[in-house]
């Protein structure tokens, strides 16, 4: 297994030089499978994307599309077993993280790449105060004393706009509301000033008014710090508001990648088109919802050819035989469909 | 429109907050639903929207008579349903059915689909005599777009969307007049959500059903509803037709709620009215005096703390709005498609 090999380079932490691509974080042809008693589920089947400083890449997909597993692999928190990386690279500043030692990866976590999760209540430790959990990072990673760490933690709580941060320092997670917990988790993930933030469905569990607050906060913090952000979500509305680029995932593959404006204006993959047509819109009246027929494929038994072919209205015999590669269909956009050209060129 | 088949009058549901184990004493009340009135007309869909904790699911439970109201009543065709019991209540239940949110926990994992859908007929044998039940169940499966051959399968053999279809089939089994849908699509993926919404619409026109459609997703509610009620902390703050609520909202909460919904169109990014509410919803145990929204409202004046604003048609509002300063404001630039 390639992920056990220790890298020959011993230069620790972020900033280490691998191949000079200039990209901040790159996922390259990543493959992950889950080996379960019932069989092998191919969860990620060659995912490639990258994120640069100051930009927001949205990874869009429905449940089971592999968007969260990709993030877990980047963070090195994939449950092994059952999950195994079977191929590909995750490069941070050009250096493959899957070949690093545990110690090197640990140093990148928090300082290089940090992550926030959907469910803040289960992501926070219930038996420690929120303040302690933030201050802990400063003490362990920055070697600060108790008082100084506390000061910095209060400062972080302030930055994520938790009212009365000083008084809230000693509260436990259950004493916070849903929105405040999400803020506390953001404070925790940003404490060590990461270069990349992965936000895995950060607002899915929240109400719309709170969701708007949190998305505003994330956008503001990202601008200030010039972070790269990977926003994982299934919500086409949230994506339209904040993303620069979008990667759409289906059955463990990227089926389309494009600039946010181009993607909504002219999707180059029938799945993206279907998704956009099937969401009810607040600003439309008398709208007909077009649905994508059928169900997402079983990952233990992905159909041959294009994984979307059984549900695709455009499917032809070639779609059942050949897996369409993710190919360039315009400046800075790619699609994995045999008929992408036709989709893009239609009027 | 036809007359109301369901009327809800000043409905109140409080849950006691107790302290102590042996000598329990009530130390407060969770005011989950606190004075809600509306009517449901035959064949229409009434959407109920609000954020978590606003009492919309409690409302569903009281409408279904799963909970007795603390005060007020629910009247179905002139009958106060909260006073019914025994056989009369059982007969009423045929007419009002529920579709629940979570298709994973609302189906008994040890029963086959045939048993799940056949159970309503065991309780109400007058609807279908014993011999014809299997046929009825097959018919139901076909109606909601499932394969009738799957009658002997268990819930775990179905996907989330298919399970929700089973839930809908179960609600439909007794051919009710009213179906209360409590967040029926919020647990589903986008592509599946649209399938279930289309199914609900199709069944409504086929059987002339009336829906009380409870959801937190304002886009989903707009798509399905004829009229919409917006709830905040146990009260309806604004009610009106779909156009009135979405095109001419007059309550600040409705306006803020609408402005917070992300629209799936990146070109709208910079020409949206954005009203950002600060803070969280107050506790329903001790809601603010006067108007409950005043702690988060940018229009709040002294009068808002003193007087509870009534849900009524006001000077600048063509539909009932519970705000002293109700005023039209366009939030969502609606276009016909």
Give a written overview of the molecule:
- The complex is a heterodimer of chains A (347) and B (337).
- By secondary structure, chain A is of the alpha/beta class.
- Chain A has 13 helices and 13 strands.
- In chain A, the strands form two sheets. Chain A has an eight-stranded mixed beta sheet with strand order 6-7-8-3-9-10-13-12, with helices on both faces. Chain A has a four-stranded antiparallel beta sheet with strand order 2-1-4-5, covered by helices on one side.
- In chain A, helix 4 packs across helix 5 (146-159), helix 5 packs across helix 7 and helix 7 (178-190) packs parallel to helix 8 (208-225).
- Chain A starts with 24 loop residues before the first strand and ends with a helix.
- Residues 1-20 of chain A have low confidence and may be disordered.
- Chain B has ten helices and 13 strands.
- In chain B, the strands form three sheets. In chain B, strands 6-7-8-3-9-10 form a six-stranded mixed beta sheet, sandwiched between helices. A four-stranded antiparallel beta sheet of chain B has the order 2-1-4-5.
- In chain B, a hairpin with a 2-residue loop joins strand 11 (312-314) and strand 12 (317-321).
- The longest helix of chain B has 18 residues, at 190-207.
- The two termini of chain B are 24 Å apart.
- The mean pLDDT of chain B is 90.
- Classes of the chains: A alpha/beta (347), B alpha/beta (337).
- Chains A and B meet through helix 7, helix 8, helix 9, helix 10 and helix 11 of A and helix 6, helix 7, helix 8, helix 9 and strand 13 of B.
Radius of gyration of chain A: 21 Å
Helix content of chain B: 25-40%
The amount of beta strand of chain A, in percent, is 15-25%
The average pLDDT of chain A is 87
Membrane topology (chain A): Peripheral membrane protein
GO cellular component, one term (chain A): plasma membrane
Protein name (chain A): Oligopeptide transport ATP-binding protein AmiF
Family (chain A): Belongs to the ABC transporter superfamily.
């Amino acid at each position: 297994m390639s992920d056990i090999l220790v890298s020959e380079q011993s230069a620790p932490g972020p900033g280490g030089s691998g191949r000079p691509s200039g990209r901040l974080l790159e996922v390259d042809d990543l493959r992950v499978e889950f080996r379960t008693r019932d069989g092998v589920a191919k969860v990620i089947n060659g995912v490639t994307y990258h994120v640069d400083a100051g930009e927001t890449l949205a990874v869009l997909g429905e449940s089971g599309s592999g968007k969260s597993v990709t993030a877990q692999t980047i963070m090195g928190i994939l449950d092994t077993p059952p999950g195994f990386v079977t191929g590909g690279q995750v490069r941070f500043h050009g250096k493959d993280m899957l070949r690093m030692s545990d110690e090197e990866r640990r140093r990148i976590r928090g300082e290089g790449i940090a992550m926030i999760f959907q469910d803040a209540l289960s992501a926070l430790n219930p038996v420690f105060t929120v303040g302690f959990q933030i201050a802990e990072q400063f003490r362990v990673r920055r070697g600060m004393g108790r008082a100084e760490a506390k000061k910095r933690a209060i400062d972080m709580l302030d930055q994520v706009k938790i009212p009365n941060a000083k008084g809230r320092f000693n509260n436990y997670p259950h004493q916070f509301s849903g929105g405040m917990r999400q803020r506390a988790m953001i404070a925790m993930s940003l404490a060590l000033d990461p270069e990349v933030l992965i936000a895995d469905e950060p607002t899915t569990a929240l109400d719309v008014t709170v969701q708007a607050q949190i998305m505003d906060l994330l956008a503001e913090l990202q601008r200030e710090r010039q972070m790269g952000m990977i926003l994982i979500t299934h919500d086409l509305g949230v994506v339209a508001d904040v993303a620069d680029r979008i990667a759409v995932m289906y059955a463990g593959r990227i089926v389309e990648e494009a600039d946010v404006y181009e993607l909504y204006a002219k999707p180059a993959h029938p799945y993206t088109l279907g998704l956009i047509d099937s969401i009810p819109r607040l600003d439309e009246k008398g709208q007909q919802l077009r649905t994508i027929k059928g169900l997402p494929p079983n990952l233990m038994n992905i159909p041959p050819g294009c994984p979307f072919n059984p549900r695709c209205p455009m499917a032809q015999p070639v779609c059942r035989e050949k897996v369409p590669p993710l190919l360039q269909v315009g400046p800075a956009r790619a699609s994995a469909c045999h008929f992408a050209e036709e989709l893009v060129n239609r009027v | 429109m036809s007359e109301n088949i369901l009327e809800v009058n000043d409905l109140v549901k409080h849950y006691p907050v107790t302290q102590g184990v042996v000598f329990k004493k009530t130390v407060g009340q969770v005011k989950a639903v606190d004075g809600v009135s509306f009517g449901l007309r035959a064949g229409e869909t009434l959407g109920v929207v609000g954020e978590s904790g606003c009492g919309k699911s409690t409302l569903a439970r009281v409408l279904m008579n799963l909970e007795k109201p603390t005060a007020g009543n629910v009247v179905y065709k002139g009958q106060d349903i909260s006073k019914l019991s025994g056989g009369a209540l059982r007969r009423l239940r045929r007419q009002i059915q529920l579709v629940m949110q979570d298709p994973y926990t609302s189906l008994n994992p040890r029963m086959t689909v045939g048993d799940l859908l056949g159970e309503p007929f065991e309780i109400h044998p007058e609807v279908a005599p014993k011999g014809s039940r299997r046929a009825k169940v097959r018919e139901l499966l076909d109606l909601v777009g499932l394969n009738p051959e799957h009658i002997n399968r268990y819930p775990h053999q179905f996907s989330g969307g298919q399970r929700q279809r089973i839930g809908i089939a179960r609600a439909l089994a007794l051919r009710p007049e009213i179906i209360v849908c409590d967040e029926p699509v919020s647990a589903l993926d986008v592509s599946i959500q649209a399938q279930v919404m289309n199914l609900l619409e199709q069944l409504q026109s086929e059987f002339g059903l009336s829906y009380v459609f409870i959801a937190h997703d304002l886009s989903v509610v707009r798509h399905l509803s004829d009229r919409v009620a917006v709830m905040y902390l146990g009260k309806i703050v604004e009610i009106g037709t779909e156009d009135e609520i979405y095109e001419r909202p007059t309550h600040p909460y409705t306006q803020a709620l609408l402005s917070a919904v992300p629209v799936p169109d990146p070109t709208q990014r910079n020409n949206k009215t954005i009203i950002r509410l600060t803070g969280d919803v107050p506790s329903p145990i001790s809601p603010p005096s006067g108007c409950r929204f005043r702690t988060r409202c940018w229009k709040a004046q002294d009068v808002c703390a003193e007087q509870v604003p009534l849900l009524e048609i006001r000077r600048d509002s063509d539909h009932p709005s519970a705000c002293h300063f109700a005023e039209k404001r366009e939030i969502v630039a609606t276009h016909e498609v």
